[in-house]
Write a structure and sequence with these properties.
This protein is 76% helix and 0% strand. By secondary structure, it is an all-alpha fold. The protein starts with a helix and ends with a helix.
Length: 185
């Protein structure tokens, strides 16, 4: 059972993350300072460092949970990848309602060279844990590449302003091809 202290820590962490995400989406990742995030989250700047090691970690704060879900599902990644948000609770049917928020988040990532580089590094790093999960390092590397390809396809389709059905078609087509190649590997 979670203690009161643990719940407060989780709430503070989430509050910092939410404030940072809103500022990043409104002003761009590079333009936002840690002092601005602290002020918006109503915490001391040092408090941010107690929860996050960098601004990039703040932006990608959900990624450890995504990796955990992917590792737990390996080698059958399709159920987690075949949705608008990897390992998220929404379905393609939800994309119509979520498209503005997803598009804003992806546009923020796309506008930042720092975040684009971090996405590649982060996803590349998933190859090791995914490979370990199935006992095949090469499979893990291919899986990480397929996940990155799927993300890049989703981002491009969303930023082109495609309708949700067209985004789904493009992402699923790319995913089908990538996973077919992965299965042959």
């Amino acid at each position: 059972m979670e203690t009161l202290r643990e719940r407060k820590k989780a709430s503070t962490r989430q509050g910092i993350s939410d404030a940072a995400t809103q500022l990043f989406e409104e002003h761009g990742f590079e333009q936002v300072t840690l002092a601005e995030i602290a002020a918006a989250a109503e915490v001391a700047p040092k408090t941010i460092w107690n929860y996050f090691g960098s601004k990039e970690e703040l932006f990608f704060d959900a990624e450890p949970l995504v990796l955990e879900a992917l590792v737990g599902a390996a080698p059958d990644l399709r159920p987690l990848l075949d949705r608008p948000i990897v390992a998220g609770p929404c379905t393609w049917a939800d994309l119509e309602q979520l498209s503005d928020g997803i598009r804003t988040f992806l546009a923020c990532e796309d506008a930042s060279p720092t975040l684009r580089a971090r996405r590649v590094t982060l996803t590349h790093g998933w190859g090791g844990p995914l490979g370990e999960a199935v006992g095949r390092p090469a499979w893990g590397a291919f899986a990480a590449a397929a996940i990155l390809l799927r993300h890049e396809t989703m981002r491009a389709a969303m930023l082109q302003g495609l309708a949700p059905a067209a985004v789904q078609e493009r992402v699923q087509g790319t995913l089908d091809e990538a996973l077919a190649l992965l299965e042959r590997a």
